[in-house]
Amino acid sequence: MEIINAVGRRKTAVARAFVQTGNGKITINKRDFENYFPVESLQQIVRKPLELTDNVDKFDIHVNIDGGGITGQAEALRLAISRAIIKIDPEHRAILKSNGFLMRDPRMVERKKPGQKKARKKFQFSKR
Length: 128
What we know:
By secondary structure, the protein is α+β, with helices and mostly antiparallel strands.
């Protein structure tokens, strides 16, 4: 099987996943998966699409992640893995879609505006 690639995004994090047949090894930025995401909850976020489709030990996944924080990176990787699984086997689309793994979360930080304290907060108004 050739290498399947997919992109996932969340906030400012971008994850490019390259999936090929193997024994279930996940490498992120040339580091081990458990080493890159030491928190168990983040590891579960990333593994969930593989567990739902019974593909935990079937694919090797190499990932390049850039930007954002660790939670945004984990959710971006979840989207990338879900998209790659669909490219491999389109029958898994229904179960991944029903769990919300194919939806790109568009929420990003709003930019700060000039003349204001933050994005929406204003400086205190003084009448006199």
